[in-house]
Write a structure and sequence with these properties.
3 helices
Length: 82
Amino acid sequence: MKNWLLAPVLLALITPFAMAQNVHSNKEKKEDVARHRAIAAAHEAAAKCLESGKSDDICNKELQAACKGLAIGKFCGMKHEH
């Protein structure tokens, strides 16, 4: 019987901390949006590079150059399986 009382209490204690983690200023949101758009543009360019018939190595190098400083990892923050 005590367990059903404990859950609402824990939720009430944790919720403010969880909500505080997601609060960003307008400036931070705009910067995040711009970063996502830049990453998307780099990935679109990589897709076009591959469509053009260039090798994976060349396209990956171009992607790495376009994403330098934008995202984590050598695949610009995104990697998929092959």
